[in-house]
Every structure is written in C-alpha cells, then in structure tokens.
Design brief:
This protein is α/β, with parallel strands linked by helices. The chain has 2 domains: 131 residues, Rossmann fold (3-Layer(aba) Sandwich); 60 residues, Orthogonal Bundle (Arc Repressor Mutant, subunit A), CATH 1.10.10. It contains 10 helices and 5 strands, in the order βαβαβαβαβαααααα. The protein has a 5-stranded parallel beta sheet with strand order 2-1-3-4-5, with helices on both faces. Helix 1 packs across helix 5, helix 6 packs across helix 10 and helix 7 packs across helix 10. It is globular and about 55 Å long.
C-alpha cells in the first residue's frame, strides 16, 4: 500500500505548487488535492486507510473556523494533520495547537521549506512557531466538540448564525423534533444549558467572536 498525502486548499496556485513539489520530492507517496471541506470529507472516507498526512487550509469556501479540522480528525484518527494558512496570528496558531494538529505552516514560507516541513511531519515532528502557548480552555473545547456528530455540527453552526429551529429543520430536511434532539445532545456534550451558552462556548470552534 502506498501512503497518501491529502492537500485541502482552494487557492489554485498554492495547491498546485505544493502538490507538484511534494510529488517531485516524495516519489514513494501519492498526493491527492481537493478544494473544499466537503470534498475533503469524501476523499477521507474513500482513502482513510491510506492517508498518512493532511495539509489543511483553515479558510475554505464551504466552512469556517475549525469545523473542517474536527471532521477530518473524526474520519482520520490515525493521520497527521497540519494547517497551512495565510493566517498566522497567535490566536489561530494557539487554537490549532489546542485542537491537536501537529504543525502550523505559513503560506509565506518558501516552497523548499514547505517540502522539508512535510518530511518532518511524516517523521512525527511537531512544527509550530516558537513559544506557541498551550490553551487549556481550547483543549477542553476540542475534547467536548470531538464528540459532536456531523449533523450536530451543522445544527450548531446554524444556531450561531441566528437561525430558528424551523429554518434549521427546513435547510437540513429534518423535523423540528429531530432538530430539538440534536440541540439537546449539543448542550449535553458541550456542558451547557441553552442555545446562547452553546453559541458562546463553541465560538472559537466556529470561527465566531463570542459576544
């Protein structure tokens, strides 16, 4: 079996450049590339046993925050996942580390450095900017959120967008009763009592600002 590296990035130049560079440098590996969180999930389901490393952009057209990361972690529990992003602020790096990624790489890095970073990640090394702190609260959020189902994540995102149960049910083609069941499960898993508390608790996961 040949191991695969999955690149998830909607920027064509960055994605194509990285794919080509990895193929040329690691000829014993296969490389897959997709441009959305939805396609990444589909690829992960199809090739789960073969995927060794995922290089994931945080900013994708069909998701926000760390929900794509969370889903890939659920689908690929044995794969190494690293973030490759143009966003390099300390909050994003700290959150990514707390959410269990093995590296945080900048798109501003030279191609040679990115290729070398891929090799380091494959060897099991962790790659973060110097002095990236540990955030126990973010780690606790990740522990709780890891138990959310895909449907519950969608409901949680809809709650954060201010949608009513009736709207969520229509968009997800569910009954309002099923939506309420999902909400009850969300509250239990996040350790909160109502939708307002759930939105605040999950804000870092969803890429929202808690109010």
């Amino acid at each position: 079996m040949r191991w695969k590296i999955l690149i998830v990035d909607d920027h064509p130049l960055v994605g194509e450049m990285l794919e080509t560079a990895i193929r040329d440098s690691y000829v014993h590996l296969d490389v897959g590339r997709v441009t959305s969180a939805t396609d990444a999930e589909a690829y992960a389901r199809k090739h789960a046993a073969e995927i060794k490393l995922v290089v994931l952009d945080l900013m994708l057209p069909d998701t926000e925050g760390f929900t794509a990361l969370l889903r890939l972690q659920q689908l690929l529990p044995n794969a190494t996942i690293a973030i490759l992003s143009a966003r390099t602020d300390s909050h994003a790096v700290t959150m990514a580390k707390a959410f269990g990624v093995k590296g945080y790489l900048s798109k501003a890095m030279p191609v040679e450095n990115l290729v070398n970073a891929v090799g380091a990640l494959l060897r099991g090394e962790a790659l973060f900017p110097d002095q990236t702190p540990v955030d126990p609260r973010a780690e606790e959020l990740h522990r709780k959120a890891a138990n959310l189902s895909p449907a519950q994540i969608r409901v949680l995102r809809a709650l954060a967008d201010g949608k009513l149960n009736k709207q969520i049910a229509a968009e997800m083609e569910l009954t309002e009763g099923t939506v309420k069941q999902h909400m009850s499960a969300i509250f239990r898993k996040l350790g909160v009592n109502n939708r307002s508390q759930a939105i605040v608790a999950a804000a870092p996961l969803l890429g929202k600002k808690a109010s």
